[in-house]
Amino acid sequence: MPGVRTQVRKQVDDALSKMQQKLVPAGETRYLTLPQEGWAGDDVRKELERLANLDHTRWEDGYVSGAVYHGEDELLQLQTEAYGKFTVSNPIHPDVFPGVRKMEAEVVAMVLSLFNAPPGAAGVSTSGGTESILMAILSARNKAYAERGVTEPEMILPETAHTAFRKAGEYFKIKIHVVACPAPAYQVDTRRVSRLVNSNTILLVGSAPNFPHGIIDDISALSKIALKRNLPLHVDCCLGSFLIPFLEKAGFETTPFDFRLKGVTSISCDTHKYGFAPKGNSTVLYRTQALRTHQYFVDPSWSGGVYASPSIAGSRPGALIAGCWASLISVGEAGYLASCTRIVGTTKKLLERIHTSPALATELDVLGAPLVSVLAFRARSLNIYDIADGMSAKGWHLNALQNPPALHVAVTLPLVKVWERLAEDLEAVVEAEREKERVRVAEGKKPRGAADGGDTAALYGVAGSLPNKSVVVDLATGFLDMLYKA
């Protein structure tokens, strides 16, 4: 109706205006055309320094959930040096840049070894977890077409699986079956997965762990289904990356997740998360070389010559590969084991604080039994998004979730140093929100109550929420447009 449409448009415009004030602050000098004369190097460096220090959430002080996983000066300096030596390099020309080809192959080999890959296993490096997931799904789709003639492909994934799987479904025209991950375990319902398998199924999916709640799906059960039905099984270890392979050695509880399970045919692992490599690095691993071949693109008849590409990109930044290789070689197995001990140990301390703190234990419920570095919690009587806003006001950048409404914390090395401050601030915010509720009741107003998720949606990567799900697509689209507002 016209009247409703006007109100909705106003709501969208108001929300976007508030976002713009934060993302595109007034008073900034805008560079919208090339300068008539190029700047002197010192002038460029001065502006770069200013831009680097624009007001931002203090990731350097550990106030960010995820996003920056290492950030120490010594490794950053080493990565910068590696980048500088290979700035112009491009793996599409291995004869011109043989060092990059060698480093990329070695990065893949090192990650394959971490995940107990069998002889004959293979992999590629990618630009990030999303591309790794896209490549694994493309391989499965092409395999199903080549071997079974499947032209209407379908895949089955947990509702908590990263949304990159849904993106792949849209990109590659694959029908998606989303399976519930019910409380209290919040793992995918494997019986439902088994019932959904049909002749068009090309892939099963599990997470180790998932992004929202930090829960590892029952990969052993999924492996059995995959073997019984002769289907590929992809395990998304992008978030677990260089932590989950070290859980056992660090003395923490773990569960089977890698190539030691015979049904696991592919794994995605982000080297740019707990592998501490520069952003823009990930890997996708396959049980066999033949599976990797299904993701290749080869054009033998192009007028420009035979063209062959291992993944989506053609030209790729060899400098990032060099930074990744330098990171893995520099940290080494002992370094990653020590990081796992610190990061997962801190996660368990934070879990214990939530379970035992008088302020938190009566209000917050941890979702499932997280084993790695991410924990999520929901509120029993308060609005969890009000708690998110309260933490944001104290300088924290946490991740708001939906379905169910919750918050999560991804513990990183910077956050390890300040986790007690995080817990103290969370206690203070919960108490403050309780007091607000008491005041509302005393004034005869209706309490805000717990968020039910019916009218509010969380925005990925932002400690806050969108006000109304009926306008969420318009708001999210406007948000993306705003990212490119100069």
From TrEMBL:
UniProt-listed Enzyme Commission number(s): 4.1.2.27
Q: In which pathway does it act?
A: Lipid metabolism; sphingolipid metabolism; Sphingolipid metabolism
Q: Name one GO cellular component term.
A: endoplasmic reticulum membrane
Q: Which GO terms describe its molecular function?
A: pyridoxal phosphate binding; sphinganine-1-phosphate aldolase activity; transferase activity
Q: What is its main location?
A: endoplasmic reticulum
| Annotated keywords | Endoplasmic reticulum, Lipid metabolism, Lyase, Membrane, Pyridoxal phosphate, Sphingolipid metabolism, Transferase, Transmembrane, Transmembrane helix
Pfam families documented for this protein: Pyridoxal_deC
Which domain of life does this protein belong to?
A: Eukaryota
Stored InterPro entries: GrpII_AminoAcid_Decarb, PyrdxlP-dep_de-COase, PyrdxlP-dep_Trfase, PyrdxlP-dep_Trfase_major, PyrdxlP-dep_Trfase_small
Q: Which cofactors?
A: pyridoxal 5'-phosphate
List the membrane topology term(s).
Single-pass membrane protein
Q: Which residues form a coiled coil?
A: none
Q: Where in the cell is it found?
A: Endoplasmic reticulum membrane
Q: Name one GO biological process term.
A: carboxylic acid metabolic process
User: Modified residue N6-(pyridoxal phosphate)lysine is at which positions?
Assistant: K273
Presence of the UniProt keyword ATP-binding in the record: no
Matching entries from PANTHER family are given as:
PTHR42735, SPHINGOSINE-1-PHOSPHATE LYASE 1
Instruction: Give the family per the record.
Output: Belongs to the group II decarboxylase family. Sphingosine-1-phosphate lyase subfamily.
User: Per its record, how is this protein called by name?
Assistant: sphinganine-1-phosphate aldolase
Please tell me the species this chain comes from. Answer: Trichocladium antarcticum
What does the record give as the organism's lineage? Eukaryota, Fungi, Dikarya, Ascomycota, Pezizomycotina
